[in-house]
Amino acid sequence: RSTTSTWKRAGSAIFNASTSLDEVNEEAFQQQRNRKAAVRPEESLATESQQQWALRAATQQAEVEALRLQLEEVAREKLRLQQDLATVTQERDEWKGTALKMQLNREFKATVENLDAAESRFLQNATTGVAADFE
């Protein structure tokens, strides 16, 4: 039972920023060596196996936490990039609309100037000599 509590302490120590994984491993293996003389061989193997499993589980939990934090950072970056893309797309569309409007105005002005130079009208008068038929 004391071995389990030792490994629980060792596992929780992994999450402590000041304790490195190497220190936890060294402490666990030192305790394991100290107990080997007092424990029967089959108990020793079971205890050793349990200790290795607990250490592996604690290490994997620390890796999962680090990956979760990395995933959150990537998600925040993705959101920021999507917002930037939306802003750039909106600015592009506004610029394109303005450019097309200016081009249309230039073309209309050129058409009006050409018609003035030719002394003709853009819109023709609808003059017909035929009277309406009201039969």
Looking at this protein, list some descriptive labels.
about 140 residues; rod-shaped; mainly alpha
Q: Layout of SSEs?
A:
Layout: H1 2-14, H2 21-36, H3 41-117
Explain the overall architecture.
The protein has 135 residues and is an all-alpha fold. Helix content is 79%, strand content 0%. α1 (2-14) runs antiparallel to α2, α1 runs parallel beside α3 and α2 runs antiparallel to α3.
Count up the helices.
3
Strand tally:
0
Name the helix and strand elements from N-terminus to C-terminus, one letter apiece.
Answer: HHH
For this structure, the quaternary state is single chain
Largest sheet: none
Beta-strand portion reads: under 5%
Report helical residue fraction.
over 70%
